[in-house]
Amino acid sequence: MVGKQIPDRLTNFTGYRNGSEYLGVVTVDLPDLESLSETISGAGIPGEIESPLIGHFGSMVTTLNWRVLDRANFKLARQEMQHLDFRGSIQTLDATQNYIHVPVRVTIRGMPKTTPLGSLTVGGTMDNSNEMETFYIKIIYNGETVVEIDKTNFICMIDGVDYLAQVRENLGL
C-alpha cells in the first residue's frame, strides 16, 4: 500500500573511510547547500533581489565529531583527498501504521580543512573533530539519488534535475 509516510528519526548509521575502513563512534554535521549569490538592484526593480547562481555553491564543510582522539582523526587529517561513506537507516511510520526502515547513504569526498584536537579533562571527553572541505556529495535515499554535487566536474543534480547540463554543453565539457 502506497500512502503517507511519516519520517521519524535516524535509527543508526555507520561511517567508512575509503569504502570499507570503519570509522568508529562519530557524529557527523553534513554541509549546508548555500548557493553563491549576487545582489541585483537598479532601474525597474523596486528593491533588491538576492539572485542565486544556479548549480554553484559556497564552501561546503562536513564535520566529524569525536568523543576522544582516535587513529581515524589522524588518517582524516592527512593532506589528501578523503572518501567517506555514511550508511544509515531512517525509521518511518507508513500508511498501515507500521514502522519501516528506509536506507540512506551519504558519500563525501573532500580535503581536510581543520583538525581541532579538543581538550584534556580528567574523566571527560576530548570533543575533537575533523572538518573537511567537501568537493563532492551524493545522497541516496531509499535507492534513489536525490543529491549529487560534484564541484570539479560541473555536476549539480537535485531531486532528478541536472541544473548544470546546459552549462556543461555550453562550455564543451
Task: State the end-to-end CA separation.
Answer: 44 Å
Query: In this structure, how is the largest beta sheet organized?
Result: 10 strands, antiparallel
Give me the number of helical elements.
2
Q: By helix and strand content, what is the structural category? A: mainly beta
Q: Uncertain segments of ≥5 residues (pLDDT<50)?
A: none
Written account of the structure:
- The chain is mainly β.
- The chain is 8% helix and 57% strand.
- The protein has helices spanning 71-76, 165-171; strands spanning 6-17, 21-22, 27-29, 35-42, 45-57, 61-66, 82-93, 99-114, 128-141, 144-150, 155-158, 161-162.
- Strands 1, 2, 3, 6, 7, 8, 9, 10, 11 and 12 form a 10-stranded antiparallel sheet that branches. It has a two-stranded antiparallel ribbon with strand order 4-5.
- Strand 1 and strand 2 form a beta hairpin.
- The longest helix is centred in the C-terminal third of the chain and has 7 residues, at 165-171.
- The termini are far apart.
Break the fold down into its secondary structure elements and pairings.
Blueprint (H helix, E strand, L loop, with lengths): L5 E12 L3 E2 L4 E3 L5 E8 L2 E13 L3 E6 L4 H6 L5 E12 L5 E16 L13 E14 L2 E7 L4 E4 L2 E2 L2 H7 L2
Antiparallel strand pairs: 1-2, 1-7, 3-6, 4-5, 6-9, 7-8, 8-9, 9-10, 10-11, 11-12
